[in-house]
Amino acid sequence: MKLIVTEDYAEMSLVASHHVLGYITAPRRVNLAVTAGSTPKKMYEHLTAAVKGKSFYSQVHYYNFDEIPFRGQDREGVTISNLRSLFFTPAQISEENIHPLSHENFRHHDQRLQDEGGLDLIVMGLGADGHFCGNLPNTTRFHDATVEVSIVGDMVDLVAHGEMDGDFSAVPDSYVTMGPKSVMAAKNLLLIVSGAAKAQALR
């Protein structure tokens, strides 16, 4: 494990983008699972500038590691929608290189990843409560692979305000996420953390 402490968010974003670029320049298929949210926003700006229009990055395949569907709406889920907005669309990533995780395919997700060579890198953030991917406190166990998690209790309010702009009617009964076992199966992990609110969780 290597810990890199940067001066500020801007430097963290630049360093993170350099790390990602170091992996995706390999002359073979590269499988990369990436995070949405606010923390990687600047990192994606750097990556977009580097990969947009570059055919030599066509061997890079992208995955989301969790997904929250919109109840009663025939559209893609929260995570993949945010990833398209943050990175895939601005960077002009080919649709054939984007592999969404969803309720429809999560049971086969780990086998699919294994068949496709495994994840070379997962880029993920850290919540103030210590969660990574969709592994919120008391939702998954260490031996869980990709699983479905029920949205109950306080989590309903968390999802409504954090992901649905306060629209409780759009909150589904469950979401899917790569569990700790699936995450640890990746060849490399890059955890990006910014802000005083997450300092205790990182420690």
TrEMBL record:
Top-level division of the source organism's lineage: Bacteria
Domain Glucosamine/galactosamine-6-phosphate isomerase: 25-203
GO molecular function, one term: glucosamine-6-phosphate deaminase activity
One Pfam short name: Glucosamine_iso
Record InterPro entries: Glc/Gal-6P_isomerase (IPR006148), GlcN6P_deaminase-like (IPR052960), Glucosamine6P_isomerase_CS (IPR018321), NagB/RpiA_transferase-like (IPR037171)
GO process annotations (BP): carbohydrate metabolic process; N-acetylglucosamine metabolic process
Parts of the chain that traverse the membrane: none
PANTHER family attached to this UniProt entry: GLUCOSAMINE-6-PHOSPHATE DEAMINASE-LIKE PROTEIN BT_0258-RELATED, GLUCOSAMINE-6-PHOSPHATE ISOMERASE
Protein name according to UniProt: Glucosamine-6-phosphate deaminase
